[in-house]
Amino acid sequence: GKSQEAQMPATVPCQYRTGKTLGSGTYAIVKEAIHVETGKYFACKVINKRLMEGREHMVRNEIAVLKRVSSGHANIVTLHDYFETAHNLYLCFDLCTGGELFDRICAKGNYYEADARALVRTIFVAVQYIHDSNIVHRDLKPENLLFRTEAENADIMIADFGLSRIMEEEKLNQLTEICGTPGYMAPEIFKKTGHGKPVDVWAMGVITYFLLAGYTPFDRDSQQLEMQAIIAGDYKFEPEEYWQNVSETAKDFVRTCLTIDPAARPTAAKALEHKWLADEKPHFVLDQ
Ligand code: ADP
Ligand code: MG
């Protein structure tokens, strides 16, 4: 581990051998990596320093956040190691072999309500933990939710704290920069009125909608129209054929998370008390 820039070869850190690419985002490529000494597999997020120039603080922030939350909860990816070479920064995580929630939704078309409910509850408990640690994730979406194993009932893990922020206790809605992934961004982000933890609850509403229907609520022909729809809270539980088997309680849960006013939106703790998630047994019939 640690920073051993001087002893490291210029490109590939000697302790790990990297293999196939697992995924990629804006600044990073994530590769499977084997720790040579132990033969253990990891997921190695490789961040190109040149691409990150001027934004190195973002990686430092990601590491600081991960140190605060990643070993404290079973459904948050664990950061194992961090080091750099002349060209790259490396973040080594527990390997999630089950892929992204995004791909599972696409493969299934949509989730059965009972399965969606179980996933949403698990993710929300982890989001509550993150918020209790005074962190806002800001990029919750199915691409950043990973399955630990290939099993159908594998644990779901929150990943990608690249846009997350540590919030000061007194200032609840102190963030103003526009960031995130448009379809999952809350209205207050576009309005630049200040935002905080409620943006994660909004994103969970979009994710829940996506799980149940197989498409997202604010998908429009352009980003401009998408933004307008989000600000107006303009979405429907339509077409009917995608929603006829979904309970009113589930729709009400989505509606609650997609409350336009962040002050009126439930907190993660409150969302967990909603009867869609709180009931011990599902209150709807498994008819799909
Ligand atoms: P970015 O900030 O560039 O979006 P992410 O941390 O989201 O980077 O990683 C990009 C992609 O790499 C993820 O969407 C996922 O497909 C894959 N990935 C990230 N972390 C892991 C992991 N621990 N195990 C397996 N795949 C991962
Ligand atoms: Mg990502």
UniProtKB/TrEMBL annotation:
Family: Belongs to the protein kinase superfamily.
GO molecular function: ATP binding; protein serine/threonine kinase activity
Keywords for this protein: ATP-binding, Kinase, Nucleotide-binding, Serine/threonine-protein kinase, Transferase
Binding site for ATP: K45
Domain Protein kinase: 16-277
Species of origin: Hypholoma sublateritium (strain FD-334 SS-4)
Protein's UniProt keywords contain Ubl conjugation: no
Protein known as: Protein kinase domain-containing protein
N-terminal signal peptide: none
